[in-house]
TrEMBL record:
<dbReference type="InterPro" id="IPR027417">
    <property type="entry name" value="P-loop_NTPase"/>
</dbReference>
<protein>
    <submittedName>
        <fullName>Iron complex transport system ATP-binding protein</fullName>
    </submittedName>
</protein>
<comment type="function">
    <text>Part of the ABC transporter complex HmuTUV involved in hemin import. Responsible for energy coupling to the transport system.</text>
</comment>
<keyword id="KW-0067">ATP-binding</keyword>
<keyword id="KW-1278">Translocase</keyword>
<dbReference type="Pfam" id="PF00005">
    <property type="entry name" value="ABC_tran"/>
</dbReference>
<dbReference type="GO" id="GO:0005524">
    <property type="term" value="F:ATP binding"/>
</dbReference>
<dbReference type="InterPro" id="IPR003593">
    <property type="entry name" value="AAA+_ATPase"/>
</dbReference>
<dbReference type="InterPro" id="IPR003439">
    <property type="entry name" value="ABC_transporter-like_ATP-bd"/>
</dbReference>
<keyword id="KW-0547">Nucleotide-binding</keyword>
<feature type="domain" description="ABC transporter">
    <location>
        <begin position="2"/>
        <end position="234"/>
    </location>
</feature>
<keyword id="KW-0813">Transport</keyword>
<dbReference type="InterPro" id="IPR017871">
    <property type="entry name" value="ABC_transporter-like_CS"/>
</dbReference>
């Protein structure tokens, strides 16, 4: 279980997160949604243990995250930031191998197997010998995801992993995240695209100006009323083949 207990984050006088209580289960895909500036990335960074709240705690399996040794935390929680910087122009294989650093086994058989699997799962095997600096934006974001997957974390926390991907890779990544969750891994993703979040997630966390507006099963959180209250845009249910989908209704 990954939980936030009264997480409160401030920057100067600004309240970025206001007493957030959450409990996330492994084996589920949770989408964090909300308008720009709502605090989604801040919450994800807290859950990853990369940002310390001014008040409140993040608990992993009921123990405070800061009590865990840094290496153990890095093995448990794989974090993919929005637009991760490329510090060294190394090969894609070397970049993905960095995912094994918390295990210290990049050269071992188990490490090599995890690296090969991560390259394969992200469609990056054919790029393994390319310099990462020569990749396109979408290829680079897949390589960064492969790096996190190579670490075989118990929790995968990703900030807008869909942003640079074309429609085919978006769908592939959606399926992949669902498969990762089906293996028992907790997947938490910040998602801007509400239709994508509705399709992808088992659970949704809806943030509004640093506050928790709602959290729970996707269908109960993503209602036209709740989304309208937070985004200030009209939403409605529409029929699409056999499915009911949520659509926004522009007022022009
Ligand atoms: N160091 C800081 N000082 C002041 N305000 C900050 C600081 N860091 C973040 N903020 C503000 O906190 C708010 C939440 O930021 P955050 O990046 O978590 O939002 P977000 O929901 O991920 O936004 P987006 O959808 O635009 O990516 C924003 O209004 C941001 O400007």
């Amino acid at each position: 279980m990954l939980a936030a207990q009264g997480v409160h984050v401030k920057a100067g006088d600004a309240v970025l997160l206001d007493k957030i209580y959450l409990s996330l289960a492994p084996g589920r895909v949770t989408a964090i949604i909300g308008p720009n500036g709502a605090g989604k990335s801040t919450l994800l960074a807290c859950l990853a243990g990369l940002l310390s709240p001014a008040r409140g705690d993040v608990l992993l399996d009921e123990a405070p995250l800061p009590d865990r040794a840094a290496k153990a935390r890095a093995r448990d929680i794989g974090y993919l930031p929005q637009d991760p910087p490329l510090h060294w122009n190394v090969s894609v294989r070397a970049l993905v191998s960095l995912g094994r650093v918390p295990h210290g086994d990049a050269q071992s058989e188990a490490g090599q197997r995890a690296i090969a699997k991560a390259l394969d799962e992200t469609g990056m095997t054919g790029f393994a010998d390319r310099l990462a600096g020569t990749l396109s934006g979408g290829e680079r974001s897949r390589a960064m995801l492969a790096r996190v997957l190579a670490g075989e974390p118990r929790w995968l926390l990703a900030d807008e992993p869909f942003a640079a991907l074309d429609i085919a890779y978006r769908q592939a990544l959606m399926m992949q995240l669902r498969q990762i969750a089906a293996r028992g891994i907790g997947v938490v993703v910040v998602v801007h695209d509400l239709a994508l979040a509705a399709q992808l997630a088992d659970e949704v966390v809806l943030l509004d100006r640093g506050r928790l507006a709602a959290a729970g099963p996707t269908k109960s959180v993503m209602t036209p009323q709740a989304l309208e209250a937070v985004f200030g845009v009209a939403f409605a249910y529409a029929r699409l083949d056999e499915d009911t989908v949520l659509v926004s209704r522009p007022r022009v």
